């Protein structure tokens, strides 16, 4: 099975069904009118969980096993709390440039 890589532009949210934090992170990104792509990982986890976690570790640069798994411009951000902090800093830097 081939896993979808994080996007080079905007947010990539690896999520799974029934994950409240996944819903919250997608809502946060949408509320701030930021670009994102969601990748539902249910099939990855059912069919090849170990290889998927290795794929995430390779892309994130560390082991990460909780959802959501968020990247921005192909760089690892983290989960919900990390993404909240990241978006706050991102919006401040946008404001500083205008």
Protein model, in words:
This protein starts with 10 loop residues before the first strand and ends with a helix. It has helices at residues 20-31, 42-60, 80-96, and strands at residues 11-15, 36-40, 69-72, 75-78. The chain has one domain: Glutaredoxin, CATH 3.40.30. The protein is globular and about 45 Å long. 49% of the residues lie in helices and 18% in strands. It is of the alpha+beta class. The mean pLDDT is 95.
What is the strand and helix layout of this fold?
Layout: E1 11-15, H1 20-31, E2 36-40, H2 42-60, E3 69-72, E4 75-78, H3 80-96
Parallel strand pairs: 1-2
Antiparallel strand pairs: 1-3, 3-4
Helix pairs in contact: 1-3
* N to C succession of SSEs: EHEHEEH
Low-confidence stretches: none
The named CATH superfamily: Glutaredoxin
Structural class: alpha+beta
Q: Helical element count?
A: 3
Rounded to an integer in angstroms, the radius of gyration calculated over CA atoms is 13 Å
- Oligomeric description of these chains: single chain
Tell me the strand order in the biggest sheet.
Answer: 2-1-3-4
Structurally, how many domains make up the residues?
1
Output mean pLDDT: 95
Q: What share of residues is helical?
A: 40-55%
What is the terminal separation in angstroms? 44 Å
């Amino acid at each position: 099975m081939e896993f979808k890589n994080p996007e080079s532009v905007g947010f990539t949210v690896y999520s799974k069904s029934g994950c409240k934090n996944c819903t919250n992170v997608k809502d946060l990104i949408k509320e701030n009118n930021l670009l994102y792509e969601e990748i539902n990982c249910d099939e990855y986890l059912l069919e090849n969980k170990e290889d998927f976690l290795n794929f995430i570790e390779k892309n994130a640069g560390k082991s990460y096993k909780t959802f959501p798994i968020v990247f921005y411009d192909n760089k690892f951000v983290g989960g919900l709390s990390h993404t909240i902090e990241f978006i706050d800093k991102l919006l401040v830097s946008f404001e500083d440039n205008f």
